[in-house]
Structure formats: structure tokens, C-alpha cells
Design goal:
The chain is an all-alpha fold and 348 residues long. 67% of the residues lie in helices and 2% in strands.
Length: 348
């Protein structure tokens, strides 16, 4: 559900940039005041895990579409909404800057849709009431699925509204919403199950992460070493190898656009969009999670090679593995140092 720049106007993009900058400032202050020091390493390793997991698109049967987890609800359950918002913002920023996944002008929209909504709406108003103060595996399953579905439904609808307010006439409101909502319902159900499995494992291994007690409100001496090692290992395996098995079908947003226009992406040719496109092309050193393609000297043969590559599954590719590992590492470092920096600033 990463929006490209062509889906929004500069006014909408700038407004959401300002809104998410304000939200990030608010979240940073809350983390400074409330964050348990023991959870700072979790910010880094969970950021890496979600980054790698987002590289695996799973097929939605019978649709020709695919989806990947957003990860906002998962992060909010484990880190709390404020640290989770900063972590998902880190992930989306790394993806946009270095991998050209989601537009730079649309970065504020993407952080709002995949960060604010799951962290500040789905988690507190859906997950927490359903799971309550006495979690169980059944309640975690119910809460995770309901929150993931609600988060994606609201996020998908927010995408439609942002294109509507941007005046994107190529995506009529009614047609677009009738394609976006059902496909993201299916994606949300799968994300909810994945979230529940991860949360269930952590609840079993280190329940203090999810349920601090009245006598021990912080993690304190509780060992989260095993959880960190497992999540880090999964991030490496997923980014370095499992990413080859991602579905080649368009994701829910691309599928919906193609259902209206016949193409998975729209084009924008004005000066502002051109500036951001040129800037992103210069910064992104692993665009589309792969090595930059060399200039084509024989277009016909290159076209044939690309067609053959698209038909291959799993797509065993060194560039994909490098992108998964490098992106996970950058995200880990960025999220960790954001948490650490805020902690140091709070002590001064």
C-alpha cells in the first residue's frame, strides 16, 4: 500500500508531510518520557524484521493480486504506539529513500496510512479492548486479526480519500473504493494471522513485553535476549532468502489501479513531481530492491530478459538478497539510534 507520488497532489503531499512531522515530534516526546530502556533494542530489531517481512508479498487466491504485512499493529503491541510510530516511520523512510518503494512526496501519506492509523487507532481502540488486561492466545488471535483488518481498511480508505482530495480523476472515488476495500480485507486477514503468531510466540517466551505486571511495570530483569535473537535471525533469513519467494502479482493498491486504468501505476509530469522523481532516482541505490540496471544498449534483448525473469519463481536473485540484508541493517541502526538518542536526550 505504498503510494507513489503520481497518486497525490503537492498540496496533499505537503499537508501530510507536515501532519506526520507533528506526529513524529509528539511520539518522540512520549518516548522520552515513557519508554522502557529495555525496549530500545527491540525498536531496532523489530524495525529490521518488519522491513524484511514487507519484502514478501503473498498471493491473494483467485484475484491475481498480492499483499504484504504493514506491521504497524505488531509494532504497537510490542513497543507501544509512540515507539511503534517512530519505528514504522523509519522503515517507510528507508524504503522510500534507498529502495524507491513509495514516493518521496507521498512519504507523509504513507506514514499516516501505515503508521498513524494502526498505531494510534487500530491498536488502542480495537486490539486493547479485545485483549484486555488478561491476554490469552485466543484473545491475542482475535485482537490481532480485528486490529489488522481495521487498520488496513482505514488505511485503504485513507488512500482513496487522498487521491480524491488530490483531484486524481483517473481514479473515480466509487470504483476505486470498491476495489481497494475488499482486496485489503483479504490482506488484513492474513496480516492478522501472521501478527497473532508472532505475538503468541513472544507472549509465551517473554510475556512481560506484552503484559507488564503491577509489581513489575517495566521489563527490568526480564530476559528478552531470546526474543531479540529469534527476530533478528528471522529478519536475516527473510530479507536474505525468503524474499525470493515473494509473489510477482501486483499488490492491492497496484491491482486496484490496474482494475480501473489497465496499468498498475499512474504518471505525473508536472515540475514538482519531476523534482521528487529525479531526487529519488539519485538517492535510491537499490531501486525496487535490486541493483540498478545498466543502460540498455539492445532494448529488444533486455525486454526479453525481463520477461523471462518475471516468469521465474522463486526469483533467486543476489540483488534481492543484498537489498533485503542492507535494508534490514539500515532500518535496525536507524530505529535503534532514534530510541537511544531520545533516551540520552531525556537524561540531560
Amino acid at each position: 500500500m505504498h503510494m507513489a507520488d503520481a497518486l497525490i497532489s503537492p498540496v496533499v503531499g505537503g499537508t501530510l508531510w507536515a501532519a506526520t512531522a507533528g506526529l513524529a515530534s509528539y511520539a518522540a516526546k512520549k518516548v522520552q518520557n515513557d519508554m522502557d530502556e529495555q525496549k530500545i533494542p527491540l525498536m531496532g530489531v523489530l524495525g529490521a524484521f518488519v522491513f524484511a517481512s514487507q519484502m514478501i508479498n503473498f498471493t491473494i487466491p483467485g484475484t491475481g493480486s498480492s499483499g504484504h504485512i504493514g506491521g504497524g499493529v505488531l509494532l504497537a503491541i510490542l513497543l507501544g504506539p509512540h515507539a511503534a510510530f517512530l519505528t514504522i516511520a523509519s522503515i517507510l523512510t528507508v524504503q522510500a529513500l534507498f529502495f524507491a518503494d513509495g514516493g518521496l512526496l507521498a512519504l507523509g501519506c504513507n506514514i499516516f496510512n501505515m503508521g498513524f492509523i494502526p498505531c494510534y487507532i487500530a491498536y488502542p481502540f480495537i486490539y486493547k479492548p479485545l485483549v484486555g488486561t488478561t491476554p490469552s492466545q485466543k484473545r491475542i488471535m482475535l485482537g490481532s486479526i480485528a486490529a489488522a483488518v481495521a487498520g488496513l481498511q482505514l488505511g485503504a480508505f485513507s488512500v482513496v480519500l487522498q487521491t480524491l482530495f488530490s483531484g486524481i480523476s483517473a481514479l473515480p472515488f466509487t470504483t476505486f473504493v470498491l476495489l481497494m476495500q475488499p482486496i485489503h480485507l483479504a490482506i488484513g486477514l492474513i496480516e492478522g494471522i501472521i501478527t497473532a503468531v508472532v505475538i503468541g510466540f513472544i507472549y509465551q517466551e517473554a510475556p512481560q513485553i506484552i503484559q507488564p505486571t503491577a509489581l513489575n511495570p517495566s521489563l527490568g530483569a526480564a530476559s528478552i535476549k531470546k526474543v531479540i535473537i529469534v527476530l533478528f535471525t528471522l529478519a536475516i533469513i527473510t530479507g536474505g532468502g525468503l524474499s525470493w519467494f515473494a509473489s510477482s502479482n501486483p499488490d492491492g493498491l497496484e491491482w486496484s489501479i490496474a482494475g480501473i486504468n489497465g496499468e498498475e501505476e499512474l504518471q505525473a509530469s508536472d515540475e514538482v513531481h519531476g523534482y521528487f522523481a529525479e531526487l529519488q532516482e539519485k538517492i535510491a541505490f537499490l531501486p525496487d530492491y535490486n541493483f540498478k540496471a545498466a543502460p540498455a544498449s539492445h532494448p529488444a534483448s533486455v525486454e526479453g530478459t525481463e520477461a523471462a525473469t518475471e516468469a521465474t519463481w522463486p526469483a533467486v536473485d543476489t540483488g534481492t538478497s543484498v537489498a533485503g540484508l542492507v535494508g534490514s541493517f539500515i532500518t535496525l541502526i536507524l530505529a535503534y539510534f532514534i530510541g537511544k538518542g531520545l533516551q540520552v536526550a531525556a537524561k540531560r
